[in-house]
Amino acid sequence: MKLFKMSKILSRRSTLKILASAIAMTPFYTSANKSLYSYSWQSSALGNQVDMQIFTKNKNHLEKLIILVDSEINRFNKIFYLQDASSKINLLNKHKVLIKPDIELLDAINLSEKLYLLSNGSFDITIQPLWNSYSSGQKINTDGIGFNNIDINSKKISLLNKNTEITLNALAQGILTDRIHNILLNSGIKNHLINFGEGRSSGFNPLIKKWQLYVNREYIDITNKAFSVSESKSTVLPNNKSHLLNAKTYDSALSIPNKTTVIAKNATLADGLSTAYAVSDELTRKYLVKVFPKEKFIIT
Q1: Both ends of the chain: CA-CA distance in Å?
Q2: Quick count: other Cβ atoms within 10 Å of Cβ 185?
Q3: Interatomic CA distance for residues 142 and 126, integer angstroms
């Protein structure tokens, strides 16, 4: 659902503007005259350019924490990254069975099933064969598409059809964002913004107080909230259609909004909802908005 080429990711992310002014390890002073460090960090995760902006008083502690964050990103790449042939998701797609799956993989598939049901089957992680066909120009094979082809328990994940393959690109970035958010919070870093394609903020930005997202020519307060954006043209398939695929029609979704932004309590939910909304029909979109009244859907 969100299998992006890097060039397209950069284009996608350029439409997002987050109001923050962090400069790498630059000290400034609070009203209490205590030094507070503003730290900006950039890297890549799951094929995306990612960044964090953090305010902290303990510079040495933060430098050690970044090592842990980087290690966790590498671990997630080994679980979810479809461009890594040795990742757990690729091994599952290849061998059709995965023994002792990571809890993150189990949680992602279980949440995917809920979104599958809420979207009346439009959102379905078994669409990876569609992506393979459209991106390579090969004949489309719909055999194996459908959530009923997945059998899952805590000990094993099985794909029941030889043609079934899954993608969790509509959730993995959100799951990683929430994981890094919790690492920072549990380590005492309360004031931060994580932007991993999907994003989440905590505390405040001492320079402008609130964390804000600029979208639709409007400033949206995202303080202590998460966000995700799905854009119809962020990746265009060789057939000139959007990468946002509807599993019911085996094709790019119809009437896709140019941009679907969701503000939610966590990045995983925002990530899943932005894609589910984008790939669904109008009736299902209205239903999703009704089912999630506390989440904010901003449609361009």
Answers
A1: 19
A2: 13
A3: 10
